[in-house]
Give the backbone structure.
Amino acid sequence: MLAIALLVLLCASASANSIQSRSSSFSGEYGGKGGKRFSHSGNQLDGPITALRIRVSRNFIVGLQVRYGTVWSDYVGGKSGELEEIFLHPGESVIQVTGRYKYYMKQLTFVTDKGRYLPFGKNSGTSFTAVPLHPNTVLRYISGRSGSVIDAISLHWDTYPSQCNTC
Ligand code: MMA
């Protein structure tokens, strides 16, 4: 009897694990090898992505900052160009990111589950298309490499958070 109970517990925990491990995926890294690594992995605890600031020059994606819940991440990147800011609608999520790069990031386009298409930067370089591996998952955080511009980016996908610390 005890053995059966243990077996049931073991199976339940194994299937819970496999459910968990079937929601996260990542795409990347896209871009060049220069710059210093950054990661917003910890920022995802502040909530879903709610806004984006992207600094764009004539040729490059110069810098970026992402708002998680109500908290902005640190800014990464350089000072040139102009800062553009876009807020997502309540409950709206990014479900695809396309872009172009050569040695540095040149273009990023965010596509949302409300059908909005948010492009930044120049239409030149090698293109990539990043989408989540698992159904019903969204962009939860980004990581990459930066210096005086954004050198490279990775996209990390998971389920929309059911609760967050600050929202
Ligand atoms: C800096 C340095 C490099 C990086 C570029 C572009 C100008 O050099 O951090 O490693 O590749 O910026 O971001």
Residues 100 and 126 are 5 Å apart (CA to CA). The radius of gyration is 18 Å.
